Amino acid sequence: MGGVTTAEPTGPALVVGLANPGPDYEGTRHNIGWEVLQELASRALPMPAGFSTHKKTNCEIAQTRLAGRQVVLARPRSYMNLSGGPTAAVAKYFSVKPTDVIVIHDEIDIDFGQVRLKRGGGEGGHNGLRSLTQSLGTRDYLRVRAGVGRPPGRMAVADFVLKRYSKLEQPDVPFLVQDAADAVELLLQHGLETAQNQVHSA
């Protein structure tokens, strides 16, 4: 009755989009988390959500509802490799347990255009995840992994993720953003196992 799931916590869910700040990084593979966060904000009800600077946590945040849940959308204003501190601060401010944090990030170990979900695991050389793990004190946060593919040839990973998408890839980026946003909403509404079953079978 009432449409509220028994799994819903008393506080809001925290959805974090990893990215580097500033116009130089806009549209790069490393910033896919921020693009997904903006897509989620556009879906918020009863109207699209706007972000504002939350000085106490050094994040840009939007408080809204998604998939029937109260959520805080947050983007750390620090560089990627320092994103753990602001994320931990906003989680503490809104009384969100680390295990209830959903992090959206780029993933080179997944083919471009694919989305995968998991809880915990290693960081795979991703400096943003490493910072999050250190600051949250656990690896057991939820991850929405947006596949950006592997660097070609001998290109360094750091150079690859800071580049913009190829002309061949660019038309498909909006679909990747939408699919990752869909995955976040499935996590919010149904939890990890059901969301994985739907997303990974697509």
From TrEMBL:
EC number: 3.1.1.29
Matching Pfam families: Pept_tRNA_hydro
Site, Stabilizes the basic form of H active site to accept a proton: residue positions: D106
Active site per database record: H30
Catalytic activity from the UniProt record: an N-acyl-L-alpha-aminoacyl-tRNA + H2O = an N-acyl-L-amino acid + a tRNA + H(+)
Annotated residues for binding of tRNA: Y25, Y79, N81, N127
Signal peptide range in chain numbering: none
Enzyme category, top tier: hydrolase
Molecular function (Gene Ontology), one example: peptidyl-tRNA hydrolase activity
Keywords: Cytoplasm, Hydrolase, RNA-binding, tRNA-binding
Record site feature (Discriminates between blocked and unblocked aminoacyl-tRNA), residues: N20
Keyword Cytoplasm among record annotations: yes
InterPro entries: Pept_tRNA_hydro, Pept_tRNA_hydro_CS, Pept_tRNA_hydro_sf
Chief site of localization: cytoplasm
Superkingdom: Bacteria
Intracellular or extracellular location(s): Cytoplasm
Assembly: Monomer.
Function recorded in the entry: Hydrolyzes ribosome-free peptidyl-tRNAs (with 1 or more amino acids incorporated), which drop off the ribosome during protein synthesis, or as a result of ribosome stalling.
HAMAP family: Pept_tRNA_hydro_bact
UniProt similarity note: Belongs to the PTH family.
Name this protein carries in UniProt: Peptidyl-tRNA hydrolase
Organism: Dietzia aurantiaca
